[in-house]
């Protein structure tokens, strides 16, 4: 996620030089053709086309934004639920009998969110996940297709262990199980976003129509704009392309891209909160890197 | 659900050659008539018509998309609830007394989601459903009008059996019953989407108006576009038809069509998660077929 | 609710012949006047008016559709809750002591949804409601202003009876009471939709502005469209009237009209599900009548 | 809330004669100036201005409508919760020991909703509130800044009294406390709507821009509409003013105005439901007054 | 939050004199250039640009408003939950044994909301937070990265203390823990809004496009508006800038700005409600300052 206020110029240049050049060259070709070989092309269809396309792209960016925001909301719920499970574990269970179990539950939760982060970003399970799990747990969880799910199942067993030891009763267990349900629901929601792209029509048609529009635009404008066509047409074309790109950037909020949600930073936030909740030393929060990107 | 990034050309050709031909022929007829028998047709009404129709189609695609996304969300909830019921069963009930019952609950849930899939797609209950149920259960469930519902009722009875055996207490039963309520609510939401089409007006009028618009379009444009009419008018017409088609494709997310939700794949995901949760061997996940379609 | 794919021609004719005639006659009058007594009327204000009106009508249809869909969602919740109360009753309570009580709870729920249906449609309580209630219950419930509410209160007493008999404990009672809360909330939501029309401004102004627009339309178009005015203006006018009508049709989803929700069919669905859940013989599902309408 | 289908003419005249006169006089002045002292004023900026203003006003009416509908939804939840607390009290607590306490809980809830109504409408606590509370309760509650909140706190103590008497156990108390949480949440939501107007920008700018637009409109139209300007411009101006007014009317749904929610009628509905639930005689429902307004 | 109905003129002047001057000077320069060195610049691209930009800005203001309203909703939930925790504490726990503990829970909740307020506004923890906590608590909480979270954890421990003392049972504890979950969820939602700005594209591109539009506007209008260009173009430009600014003002509802949510006033509301709930003397409510701003 980009947190800097202004874009780095080099990133802007890298992002737009290609479409800019293509658009400009095409607009110049059309303008020259018009002066060499005058043709008559009314602007009305371009206006009509542009309006409908604007509505279409607007709807698509809107959907993409909502997916991005829903993804953020689901990670927010995950942060809340992580705090809730830690608070419940710490307060419900007696010391010193259950101290070690509490630590395990908290460690497991930190491992869980990191495992989920790796799964969502399609990365292999990294050191953040493995370091907090005991060896045999690690092996067991890694055998599951859905590693995060395996870790969560194990947390449920730890809680039941506390009940069998008489440290909590079934009501307190039910309360903690309800938090596990919240966690499982957040995870499910994230997997839904990850595994379900926008419908094919919303991926392919806007791209097709926008490019078609950029091709037709100078033809429709040249009679009116004359030699100013390359300028006017390129600016308008870039604007439409920018709106198209916004949709692509936001639609998959769990990819590993500069526009995506800062899962690393959020996992660290959870780690700090949870370790401090059981009185352990916590690492530093993650800040944006030197390019102003929070990962 | 189409997961490939670009459309297969053959699918595109099959999808558009008919409307393309009809539109083009009509546009050519209008253009020829105009040159043979000049008439004066101002473009204003076409613009006004096009704008209002654009708003109308936009609203309709939007509603259709929301139905599709709601359908996906409901299956997401079903996946979550399936994991929750399995985790609760495994953790709450004691081993080895309840081991067989846990297996039954998990098997029933896999049978349940497959039964629901068949019902939603209006297919007969297939082998996936039947193989995991004991013989007499199968017969009992198949007598119900709503087979999935019958299987769920039976799961509730299994849970009560565990309570009567003293394996869980009523609080744990209540916790598990709450998950059954989540499952029943998801099912009910899916049946609502399946059984309630868009209101008649949103099915019939956009189709009528779009076709009418395609008929009027070349008449309104021919004076301006002259001999370029067939090209301009056909492109614009196809665009409106495309938006109309999107609505039709997404409105029933549980049909058995290439644009619909990949229920097979999601049922398989549930099967894998649940079997691994009780330590059994799970089948492979389903991937897209060779045409890039996930069913 | 209309379930047929194409509209019956007779229904279409009946629905549009009146506005069609009025619009057409007025458009012809304006056109003739123009040829007899030429006047100059620019089209711009009509375009501006049309755009703003389009936005206004669009918003209103949208709100009406959302009310309709919310109504459907609330009945969906009612179906789910009915299944949940039946499943809980059947599974929590012991046989054979509580068999008769279970039957009563299921019968009451069927009576309840039918009573609610009659209340929402402003019909007198019909035979469907009364046949399943014992005589003295019937009299008691019918004395209440809100009959459905009275039946629900009685169901709550039956559940408490089961608790006092020691058939269920207070946890199971709480679980069932939570389902009654769901039922009461659905009912309350339906009554809210029924008793709260759209704000006056959204009922009156769109009607006023649309009719004003239909009057002004031919005056604004005649200079451009010439003798084609009656055709063009009538089509455009009908389109705006159609959008206006959609709003009126959907805004009260619980009326007893062809566009409204099929409450009869949904009550029957509940009846079938619930009777089969306790192993009794269920009636047939209701299908659309010969005009393709599901009531 | 206006429930009559057509507006009373006198109300319409009273509502629009002032803006109508002002608009018309200004439009006539502009037209006369134009004929006396011709000036050239192209219509384009007016169209552009009108479109953007239309979007702006559209968004604002939409927000206002959503606030109004949310307010209605919150009162709907209050009605449901009132029924739920009464049903729970009646069913959970034993007769005849708890009969008096049940009556108190029901009376308190009726007093509570009336107190809330007075608070939201910024009226002093009226007789409806006070008559149902015992003398010392009245004094205690009236000392609180938030009277309704004080009454609710007292209801919670009554429920705890029942628990201390052994009439209900803590599970049943928790179930009733959950309903109190619903009630407190509804109240909080209503206070949020009441105390948070639309952001300043959405209150001031639309008013400013709409009036500016009404001033500019005849100047932009006079060249095209000529002597028809006063008519065309006044109609268009009134339409924009109407949309502006809708926003103002709906934005505060708890004021004491003809467009606001019928809190009196809804409090009476609750009173009838609750008194009948404990078998007491209930007053009549409130209907609209002779002007077709439901208060 | 501005609560006054009309803006203070000095604030308006301060807000707009800079853009007003810049726009006007530029518009005059363009107009003079046009008269000195006539050029031909058609208005079409400006219209097309303006429409697309209008949609874009509209979407952005909409999103910003929704964030603002969500932020208000989350504080509303916090107010409700604060009342719920106080009511539960007061009613569930016995007097006089638990009187001191109840007071602590209420004081902690007041400290908690004030700590959260400081965190969200990026202010150091102020006197409001510290005065209500005992010395050692203060030190403990201030060591946490997330101070509010630390206070909440401590409240959970107080509640468990009540359970260990036998003052409440685990069911009542679970009920109170559920309120703590509500509180943690509200806090998490607020932190989500605070830490997640709008995506970069929605922050940077609207600003860029709006400024570009203001530059191009007089060039496109000058041929039509002639010497009225500076007036027309400045008004239109200001309007677009106003809409741009709305987005910036609302997008971060927890900043310490005149447009942001009145967290001080809401914390005070909670303090009054909670102190009165345990019968202590409460301070006065906070009103708007002399500029009509509620902080």
TrEMBL record, chains A, B, C, D, E:
Belongs to the anion channel-forming bestrophin (TC 1.A.46) family. Pfam families: Bestrophin_2. It is found in: Cell membrane. The keyword Transmembrane helix applies. This is Bestrophin. Keywords: Cell membrane, Ion transport, Membrane, Transmembrane, Transmembrane helix, Transport. The chain crosses the membrane at residues 20-37, 43-59, 202-221, 227-246. The keyword Protein transport does not apply. One of its GO terms (molecular function) is chloride channel activity. InterPro entries: YneE/VCCN1/2-like. GO terms for cellular component: plasma membrane. Its main location: membrane. It is a multi-pass membrane protein. It comes from the Bacteria.
